[in-house]
Model the fold of this input.
Amino acid sequence: MVDLKLVTKAMGELDEDQVVSALTDFMASDPSREDTLKVMSACQQGMSLVGDLFDQGEYFVGDLIYAGELLTKAIETIKPALKGESVAKIGKMVLGTVQGDLHDIGKNIFKSLAESAGFEVYDLGTDTPPEDFASKAKEVNADIVGMSGILTLASNAMKDTVESLKEANLRENVKIIIGGNLVTSDLCSHVGADAFTTNAAEGVKICQGWVK
Done:
């Protein structure tokens, strides 16, 4: 098993060589899904360090962009170990970062885990208008709508998106989950979502429970 603290530290320091080396060695050990999720969590914790350093003025926008690219590379490296034995699709999910927010790191982690769990994910990207969530959910007959956002303004966009789903007569047929650093139980109630998560793996477990 790889040293999880080392992975977190290397990710936080944006040490690509060390991250890639550690994850490559990890994959060579034919890891279990459980261990791979632990490594994924370690990578997420490293990204939290990056966010803290950005808030402190140690990192800049360019560092955030690079961190996102590094995380994407890390996910792609370990993604094969997240594949379940069954490739059967268990449900359809429309996913996106809400209008006014351009952050996609958390969304991309959630997407990778959801796909590996058997969901058919339709990723709308970032800065997604409420009506786009509704139209896509209707088009693909989605079971779940997932909204991501980390800016304060995202809360209003999430609420507007739920309203858009209601106006399209879709709300009763879809479950809604919201995610991001800002989400809380109070915000979940405020926007009218069914669940919230600040942990991608836990969020996917919630969604799996909905489609069983």
